[in-house]
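Narrative of activities, Objective 1.

The group set out to show that a structural description can be obtained from nothing but a protein's sequence at a throughput compatible with the screening campaign. Below is one input-output pair from the validation batch, recorded exactly as produced.
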Amino acid sequence: MGRTMAGFDICHFERRFVRQLASCGIDLAAAPAIGVAVSGGADSLCLLTALHRVAPAGLAIRVVTVDHNIRPPEESGGDADFVEAYCRSIAVPCRRMTIPPGTVRELARRRGSGIEEAARSLRYDLFARFMEEERVSFLCLAHHRDDQLETIIMRFLQGAGTEALGGIPAVRGSYVRPLLPFSRSQIESYLAALGIPFRTDKTNADTAMLRNCIRARIVPLLDRELPGWQTALLSLAAKMRDDDDALRGLAAAACRDVAFSQGGACVRMDAAAFALLPRAVRRRLLYRAVDAVGARCRVPYRLIADALDAPAAGTPWHGNAAGIEIRCDGADIFVQKEQKVATESGFFVIVKEVGVYAAGCWTVQVERSGDGLVLTASGTPGSSTICIGNLGFPFAFRSRQCGDVIRNASGTYTAVSKILDGWKCGDSRDLVPVLQDFRDAGQQLVCIWGAAAGFKNWLVKV
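Output recorded for this entry:
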């Protein structure tokens, strides 16, 4: 190894690469196996090549390549063929994982997201499966310095906060990015010096995609008009990461203050304690809650901004967007997936004291009885009275939700939908109330009140 191709120093490049691996926590001498994601483009071919050349004897390198099937077969499948052939030439095992045709577009349609976002989601699902099945501790990804700059610009234009403006992390969980300090030019020069070809994705020229537009139009403009902008932007990202670390710590501590608790697909926080926090921390807690309940696409900031000040107003508030619902009843804040039931009968009410409550087609009277509660429900489906000794305030009287489970006699859990199917509830399944205990972090269901609609009851025994 030495200087070739107009003086490009291969050894220097590879020494920097080894140092970057070490800074990502990878000790080549100690690692038994390392995974590498390879698409066939210059960046991932460089990553694999450099790793193969610097790897000590005994280090197993395992490659994964994903065929997304969103381009013509000769392009998408051709990339995977190319990766497999290159891996054979250097005696590195390669696993080809294929996403069935139409899957990416269908996921994008269901989520209301872009094709690239849906493809990324499916790709990372396959990466996780690859790491588990191949027993690799790390998966190396080929993001580089130009990707970092483009990402920061893109997130700035999308109105991102400190976490996103920190850019692409060098390490996130089991994913490591050892090429982040290297430019696209350096990467291509390295491959040219070694005489290694690579594939080019034709969609990279489509400037209708924001990232491609930034790469083709905005970056050349900045290079021409603002010398030094790249260093300044990377410095900004470093500062944002520092700020993000501080805010992350404050938000973690604030979780205790607001009694942040999750039960199923619902997060609850104390509204009064929430209102006393700095606005930046409140925003973090809302985003944390949104992530916890499993948002499947980006939630617009409008919803978060509207929810930030709702507790201070002291009046009930409700908002929803992108499949996420946030509401405040004056005392508590709830963040959950937006409920979409098959009929018009969905209902939900939080019961915090003795009284009479309206919920959809139901009227519920709540009274105390010893250490428990007596509930009487009346409505179009029927009427029923039930005494529950293991229920206290607050609790929810509501219709079923997708993913609801309830404890059975053996201590395991059964899907509520399965129980209702067993009762042959048919079109009345969304009229059957369930009772959810909000007194602790688990927020477990304690009753399927089937008798109210003419069916059986399912009570959780304490």
